[in-house]
Amino acid sequence: MMGENMFGSTMWAGHWLWMLVIAIVVVIPAWRICQRTGYPGWMGILILIPIANLVLLYLLAFGEWPSNRKREGGV
Length: 75
Prior knowledge:
This protein is mainly α. The protein has a domain at 30-75. It has helices spanning 14-37, 52-62, 66-72. The protein is elongated and about 65 Å long.
């Protein structure tokens, strides 16, 4: 059916480049949002992981931001 190659001819070389571009377009804004809310920027990478991305969105939407806690404490 598909020959010796497990993926057949559907996996072209630019596929991985395209996935990298999309990941960068998604991760950079998520990284900046996490930094501005007071969370570590690396948490923006969680946006690429299924289920973890939902947890991150709910944490950002409904959680208390560390940056707000610092501002209320007078720091």
